[in-house]
Amino acid sequence: MKTPTRPLIAGNWKMNGSRAFAKDMAEALVNRLSEREEVGFEMLLCPPAPLIDVVRESVGASGIVIGGQDCHAAKQGAHTGDIAAVMLADAGCNYVIVGHSERRGDYGEVDAVVRDKAAAVQMAGLIPLVCVGETVEQREAGEAVEIVTKQVEGSIPNGSSASTVIVAYEPVWAIGTGRSATVKDIAEIHNSIRTVLSKIVVDGESVRILYGGSVKPDNAAAILSVDNVNGALVGGASLNAHEFFSIAEAAPS
Ligand code: PEP
Prior knowledge:
Elements: E1 8-12, H1 19-34, E2 42-46, H2 52-59, E3 65-68, H3 85-90, E4 95-98, H4 101-107, H5 111-123, E5 127-132, H6 136-140, H7 144-155, E6 166-169, H8 183-200, E7 208-212, H9 217-224, E8 231-234, H10 241-249
Parallel strand pairs: 1-2, 1-8, 2-3, 3-4, 4-5, 5-6, 6-7, 7-8
Helix pairs in contact: 1-2, 5-7, 7-8, 9-10
The structure holds phosphoenolpyruvate.
Phosphoenolpyruvate binds next to strand 8.
C-alpha cells in the first residue's frame, strides 16, 4: 500500500561539511529543483546543527525543508553540548532524526530514550524520523522482523499519527557499507513495520516508512518502488548534490 503523500528524500549529512560546502550543496539542489516543472518528491536536508542557518538561507522558498540529526528529550537545562527540539524549531527545522543507529551505538540510546526524544520533537511542533534497524548478527540469527518490531513499538510515542511521525528502516549492516538490503528484505521489513504501525498508530497505514542504507543513484529506483517504501534516508550519497538529486528523481511520483 502506498501513502497518498509524495516520497520523502532525506539527506543525513552526519558530521560532515562546512559553511561553504553547505551553501554550495543547498544552492546546487535549489538550481536542480528549479529546472523541473513538476516535483514528485519532498526533499529534506539534515545538516550538522552549526550549518542549519546557512542551509536555511540558501534553500530560501524552494520547498526544500530542513531537519536536525538528534535532540535532547528535555526542553532546556543543564545538558552541556545537547540541543533541544524547540531550538531546532527556532532555527527553522521541520524534522528531527532520532534513534539513528550511530546514536544508539555510540551513546547507548535505547528505545525508551528514542521515544522520549521523538515526543520532545512532536511537542516542539516538528516531525521525528524514528530510525530502527537490526544488526548483522540479529539478521543472521533470523531475528530481523522481531527486533525491528520491538524497536517500532518501543520508540514511537503514544498518540502519534501519520502527520506527526515518520519511521526510517535502516539495517545497521547496510549503513555506510555500500551493501544495501535486497528489495525482498526491504519489502519484508517494511510490510512488518506497516503491520505494527497499523496496530499502534491511529492511521498507521498512512505513516511514511523510509528506507536507509547505502541508497545510491543506481539502486534508488528499485528500492523506492518497493511496496510500503515511502522515501529514503540517505547518508553518504547526500553529500554529493548530483547523486542526491538523482536519487530523488528516481522516486516514483
Ligand atoms: C544513514 O546514515 O542514515 C545512511 C543511510 O547512510 P548511508 O546512505 O551512507 O548508508
